[in-house]
Design a protein that fits this description.
rod-shaped; 3-stranded antiparallel β-sheet; single chain; mainly alpha; 5 helices
Length: 179
């Protein structure tokens, strides 16, 4: 078991770690083989995955962490654990905190930012960003269109007024002939 508890105070870490261990064990036992599930508790979400062969893992995240990325992490970790240890895990009574698996720490660091760890999430974030930029651009084009309409209107008004001025000036000047 690996935990990144750096966001908690020193004296809180042990209690949080015990709570996370309890959540992981309880929810993993209640997940059927071959199933994935996410369980919310207060501000935490525990994502559990039990492979069809019985190998299980869980990740506890905050509510904003994408479930898809959590399950990608679990799948990769379990696959790597299986390729490293083979079927020897089946002879262990239960995996405990003392079960060494060095890549676990690397995965925790890598998956701190879900957008950089998962390509699909990164693409979704890029698409959202592009959509926002396009919306702003469309809004500014529409604003310019409104301004152009206003300018065209003012131009038409000026044109009408100048025609009226010309006609009025012609009438006024028609009575006097300058030679």
């Amino acid at each position: 078991m690996a935990c990144d508890l750096s966001s908690y105070g020193f004296f809180q870490r042990q209690g949080v770690k015990e709570m996370l261990t309890f959540f992981s064990k309880t929810f993993t036992k209640r997940t059927e083989p071959g199933q994935r599930q996410s369980i919310s508790h207060e501000s935490y979400v525990v994502h559990c995955y039990v492979r069809s062969d019985g190998l299980a893992g869980s990740v506890t995240t905050d509510a904003e962490y994408p479930p898809r990325v959590a399950f990608v992490l679990l799948t990769q970790l379990l696959d790597e654990f299986l390729s490293t240890n083979g079927d020897s895990w089946k002879s262990m009574p239960t995996l405990t905190e003392s079960t060494a698996f060095p890549p676990l720490e690397e995965y925790i660091v890598k998956y701190q930012d879900p957008a950089s760890a998962d390509k699909v999430t990164k693409i979704q974030n890029d698409l959202e960003e592009t959509t926002q930029i396009l919306h702003k651009t469309i809004d500014s084009v529409l604003e310019r269109g409104v301004k152009l309409d206003s300018l065209v209107e003012k131009s038409d008004d000026l044109s009408r007024q100048s025609k009226m001025f010309y006609k009025q000036a012609k009438k006024t000047n028609s009575c006097c002939v300058v030679s």
